[in-house]
Predict the structure.
Amino acid sequence: MNLAISERLDPELKGPIKAMLSQMPPNNFNDLPAARAASKKMTAAMKSQMPAIPGITAEDRAIPGPKDAPEVTVRIYRPEKRPKLSPALLWIHGGGYMLGDIEGEDFTTKQFALAGECTVVSVEYRLAPEHPYPAPLEDCYAALKWLSTHAGELGVDRSRIAIGGASAGGGLAAGLALLTRDREEVKVMFQLLIYPMINDCNIQPASETLPDALFWTRESNLMGWRSYLGSKPGGKGVSCYASAYRASNLAGLPPAYIATGDIDLFAQEDIEYARRLIAAGVPTELHVYPGGCHAFDMLVPNADVSKRFTADIHRALKRAMHP
């Protein structure tokens, strides 16, 4: 573990994260099937440690995908006790645009349904590099449009639909907010961006003066962006819908909540994006947690900093959903 980074970890995170890193093989996205299998195994292990969440129903549906594309699977979570019409959150999983699935988000999405007193629709979008941009984003847009169009059937208040995601899912959510604003077909009232991966120009290699990040390294980030864009990241012509940080006009976007740890690889891009949202007149709440690396809340959920991180997100979601 990089000493410069490890010294900055929150004290409660140091021991567990050091143990995890000592047992983890290095990410090798050159063997993507193996990387996906390892990711699934790690996610399943973490999920097995989580308590059961009663009071939530879940069902999977296959919905129409983008034009000339396959159907998209969504998982719909509903609190058993809910009003006739409830707000809804479209949730997008992370995984560097290459990994992850809705199964791995099951605990998180159930928590959101309870905390936000809302319906949650989790999207199984196509993964890169087999399906580069815009396929994953268009899958998310198709799910959002379906959610809005079928709001009455789902018991959802069409005027209270939010979008959100973590890591690459946060990047997709930020791009989706821009795309939705510009297409003017669906109204989104809130965006929940958890350590979002939004800047394809963040590709500097690790060095003595630029220490590597934990769990999502600079090398991993380069591979993730290359897979998603289908080209070298950091170059010209990348759409702001793919890399939201590139957007020159942020006016008119829905209110945003952004949360990150201060030693996350995405910390600086997330902080700057929040600043630019504020400058554009978008109501924005930014939380930066000292000593937090990427995904620290999932890796060590019982640490005080993780509990605060999660509780703050849940409170923000409830405020947005029930103004």
The mean pLDDT is 94.
